[in-house]
Amino acid sequence: MMFERFGKFLQGLGGVDEPRLTREDPRVAAAALFYHIIDADGVSEPVEREKIRELLQKEYALDKDELRDILKAGKRAEDESIDFYAFTSVLKRSLDAEQRVLFIELLWEIVYADGVRHELEESIVGRVAELMGVSDRDRVLMRQEAERKTGAEGES
């Protein structure tokens, strides 16, 4: 009887695997930064939200339920944060130098998802790159690569 109550208590705490999805999870940190980028210009376009889904699913090989949970946790973490330092520090610890550079490219892909590079978005990418130890040179190279991939060359 006691063990049954204890088991029910533990089940009540568990719910869907979401409790493990905290801002310390690199996937949540990445999602939060992606949301921060698309919210920077004050307009969150459906194409931008779809790009977030696409990049997270591709980069982390997520199934539908995992993706939904990470998107929800990332949005909540972004909404509750006062800056993005916590997210960049999680990613800096969990990614090697090459992966951090490639992450900056993903941020640029988010910037160009709506076809426009807004100065606030560009500023955020620059600050994230700086906090993650990515050089200005690599940041520019990743912007150029994202422009090439998205066909957004010359946009500003």
Structural overview:
The protein is an all-alpha fold and 156 residues long. The protein has 8 helices and no strands. It is globular. The N and C termini lie far apart (66 Å). The relative contact order is 0.14.
Secondary structure blueprint with pairings:
Blueprint: H1 2-14, H2 26-39, H3 46-60, H4 64-80, H5 85-94, H6 97-112, H7 119-131, H8 136-150
Helix pairs in contact: 2-3, 2-4, 2-5, 3-6, 6-7, 6-8
Characteristic terms for this protein:
single chain; 156 residues; mainly alpha; globular
* DSSP, total strands: 0
| Count of alpha/pi helices | 8
Shape: globular
Helix content: over 70%
Task: Summarize the structure in short.
The protein is mainly alpha-helical and 156 residues long. The protein has helices spanning 2-14, 26-39, 46-60, 64-80, 85-94, 97-112, 119-131, 136-150. The protein is globular and about 40 Å long.
